[in-house]
Amino acid sequence: MPSLSRRTMLSIFCALAAGTALRLWFIHAFPQIQGDSLLYADIARNWLTHGIYGRSLMHPGGPTIAPTLVRLPGYPGFLALCFAVFGKQNFLAVLYLQVVIDLATCLLIADFVRRICGHRAAIAALWLAALCPFTANYVAMPLTETPSIFCVALGLCAFAAVLERPRLGWMLALAFAWSYAALLRPDGALLAVVFFPALMFYGRSSLGYAQAVRVALFCGLVSVLPFTIWTLRNWHTFHVFQPLAPRSATDPGEPKAPGFQRWTKTWIADFASTYEIYWNVPGDDIDIHTLPARALDGDDGEEGKTMTLIAQYNAVDVITPQIDAGFAALAAERIRVHPVRYYVTLPLLRLADMWLRPRVEMLNIELRWWQYSQHRAETRIAYAYGALNLLYLLAALVGMFCWPRFVTAMVAYIVVRSLLLSTLEGPEPRYTLECFPMIIAFAAAALAGLTGRKSLSRPFRESDEMVH
């Protein structure tokens, strides 16, 4: 990297200082250790203490540890390492370490933008990343989001560096990004799915097709090695072929509720329903007053069937096979009556909710923030967050048309991930955060282009294979 001026160094320092302050404020104002965080921590402690990758379960004879495959080992491994160094109950150390990881993500995004758009755009990217509250606030919760976003940023930066000069260090960094992203979450594999062919596509001129294929195969083979161990472990322990994690998030032999899940998919369109109903079943009652009107708008008699099934479930808070079969039949009938809504309208609404919803789920904001008469200040904060999110997205849209390098690969990742997310029953805004390194890169390109910087004085085309 060329030497930096004092002004540039000062800007980098100020951006990182502001980013640090923002993240520390989130940790001390809105820390959250609940839900999946406790599950990850439980697996990590059992792995660290007993050498068993499993969950703690309560039985009449006392607590036991049962092997599990419901979560991939990437984040439990990270927590186990933190607990080994800082103590098994020291979540605060985990959150502080996530601050460091997230700031490294900001620097990686800036370095990627420097390679594709120039130094001035890189500074804009650094500020946009450092002050982005939607990614910064997840350092305050032990979840996979912070390291997952880091893997995407590292993957982008290593991808550009490998195409410039395929050094072993950058090739291993690229393989690590692909592998660890998938070890954190199954959808992390999309990073390799998109950028493996992109490496050959962009490298055919800058590296030569033969070398590009060799580099891609090397990175791909190295990245799949951990999954060989994970798959063999699952086969040995559970006698199932499971190279990632099951979509149902259940261990072999555990009860599933496919009928209930399909029924929810016939009406869920927003995060509020995910939080109030989808997450709470089984275990808690279903509050019929939280059901949207579209959940009861089928043929004559459907409302009565729905109420009966919910009453049967609420009596035991368990989805028995009979109750699940009832929900499955109800879902089939609803799909027959409203096929377009099930296959087109609702998936698009869920996707829009994940992209456009005000990202206040990590703040002390009412879930139904739009009910202005009940909590006016929180509604205004939610609107402000929604507007800021929209500004990031609009700036990114403009930046796409500045034709920065690798625009096709970045857009492909966003599209493929969005298509996958549209198939989920329960939308969550955090699922789109892995796209934000691309969003920020595009937005930085837009800002550099609108200010007339020389780094974007002409658009970069897909045919320009060399990274300058």
Molecular structure report:
It contains 17 helices and two strands. The protein has 468 residues and is mainly alpha-helical. Strands 1-2 form a two-stranded antiparallel sheet. Strand 1 (54-59) and strand 2 form a beta hairpin. Helix 5 packs across helix 17 and helix 10 (258-264) runs parallel beside helix 13. The longest helix has 49 residues, at 190-238.
Q: Which stretches of 5+ consecutive residues score pLDDT under 50?
A: 453-468
Overall residue-averaged pLDDT value? 92
Strand count, sense and barrel status of the largest sheet are: 2 strands, antiparallel
Please give the number of β-strands. 2
Order of helices and strands: HHEEHHHHHHHHHHHHHHH
Q: Distance between the terminal alpha carbons, to the nearest Å?
A: 12 Å
**Helicity, as a percent range:** 55-70%
Q: How do the strands of the widest beta sheet line up side by side? A: 1-2
How many individual helices? 17
Brief account:
This protein is 64% helix and 3% strand. It is mainly alpha-helical. Strand 1 (54-59) and strand 2 form a beta hairpin.
Keywords:
468 residues, 3% strand, two-stranded antiparallel sheet, mainly alpha, 17 helices, globular
Write the layout of secondary structure elements.
Layout: H1 6-29, H2 36-50, E1 54-59, E2 62-67, H3 74-86, H4 91-117, H5 119-130, H6 133-136, H7 145-164, H8 168-184, H9 190-238, H10 258-264, H11 271-276, H12 302-316, H13 321-337, H14 339-356, H15 376-400, H16 407-421, H17 436-450
Antiparallel strand pairs: 1-2
Helix pairs in contact: 1-4, 1-5, 2-3, 4-5, 4-7, 4-17, 5-17, 7-8, 7-9, 8-9, 9-16, 10-13, 12-13, 13-14, 15-17
